[in-house]
């Protein structure tokens, strides 16, 4: 009876599990083709100075336009790409594309262009022996200074051992800036800040979500503490996922200078970014 029950349970779950494995495997091979077939593109979410309202930079976010499935969100394929190792060529493409785009904007809009671009980097990429050389080559090909590039890494990927630590140190010595993404959600935030050459803390959206909820003192406390920490350690603090004017105002009073979120702008197509910079250039010319 128990055996039959076990069997029935297995029979009930097995097809679903197999489908999941097959669809991940298929997604993986399709992703491999996506890179070759140019189905990937980037959107750019502006980072704003929330005191002056000026655009301060942008984060490159990868998108996949699948010929049959339509737009596949990164949440559905970045994990697959990490497990299969495809994140390495995918990440290389993102880095190069974002840097070339920034170079094109700087050439077109000069001082009205954004001056830095944020690129998300997975742990797997940091473990590649040639990563530092690759970054140097991409910057040089795109005629950018290292300070024009901000690499976003998560706390868990930073804790990935000695080689990753050396890689981050080498990037820092080169002048590339490092941001800790989803800050506050990891395990050992505070000790990390002493051990790694971090420049930017990106307060995770989950804390921003709670700051205007009078009942939720915990998330408010984390948001306020991160702003203080950044000030004492001379780091930039960026609040992400700002969806309302009230959240932006609250963050400003806490000391946040930089923010990202749908309230100000969603991730934009290059043309939409260009329109913002063109408007900024006209404002400068008119002044
Ligand atoms: P992330 O780096 O923390 O990026 C922020 C995510 O929050 C983006 O989702 C962005 O579109 C979304 N977002 C921004 N403002 C708001 C808001 O006000 N409300 C809400 N609900 N969401 C907001 P996206 O583009 O879907 O990317 C999800 C994650 O996928 C990223 O989180 C990052 O971890 C990963 N990812 C995206 N592009 C890349 C990439 O090129 N390489 C790597 N390794 N990971 C990437
Ligand atoms: Mg990010
Ligand atoms: Mg983030
Ligand atoms: Mg995130």
From TrEMBL:
Residues 24-281 form the EAL domain. This is Diguanylate cyclase (GGDEF)-like protein. It comes from Actinoplanes digitatis.
């Amino acid at each position: 009876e128990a055996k039959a029950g076990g069997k029935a349970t297995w029979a009930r779950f097995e097809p679903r599990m197999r489908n999941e494995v097959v669809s991940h495997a298929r997604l993986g091979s399709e992703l491999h083709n996506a890179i070759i077939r140019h189905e990937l593109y980037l959107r750019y979410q502006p980072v704003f100075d929330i005191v002056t309202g000026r655009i301060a930079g942008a984060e490159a976010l990868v998108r996949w336009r699948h010929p049959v499935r339509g737009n596949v969100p990164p949440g559905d394929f970045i994990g697959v790409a990490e497990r299969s190792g495809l994140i390495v060529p995918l990440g290389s493409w993102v880095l190069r594309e974002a840097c070339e785009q920034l170079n094109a904007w700087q050439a077109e809009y000069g001082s009205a262009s954004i001056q830095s671009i944020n690129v998300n980097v997975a742990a797997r990429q940091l473990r590649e022996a040639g990563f530092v050389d690759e970054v140097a080559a991409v910057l040089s090909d795109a005629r950018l200074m290292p300070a024009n590039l901000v690499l976003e890494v998560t706390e868990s990927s930073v804790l990935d051992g000695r080689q990753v630590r050396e890689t981050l140190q080498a990037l820092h010595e080169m002048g590339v800036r490092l941001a800790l993404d989803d800050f506050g959600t990891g395990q050992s935030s505070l000790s990390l800040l002493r051990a790694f050459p971090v420049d930017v803390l990106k307060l995770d959206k989950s804390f921003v979500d709670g700051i205007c909820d009078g009942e939720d003192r915990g998330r408010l406390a984390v948001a306020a503490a991160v702003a203080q920490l950044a000030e004492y350690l001379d780091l930039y603090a960026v609040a992400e996922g700002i969806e309302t004017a009230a959240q932006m105002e609250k963050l400003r009073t806490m000391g946040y200078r930089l923010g990202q979120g749908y309230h100000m702008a969603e991730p934009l197509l290059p043309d939409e970014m260009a329109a913002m910079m063109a408007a900024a250039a006209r404002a400068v010319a008119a002044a």
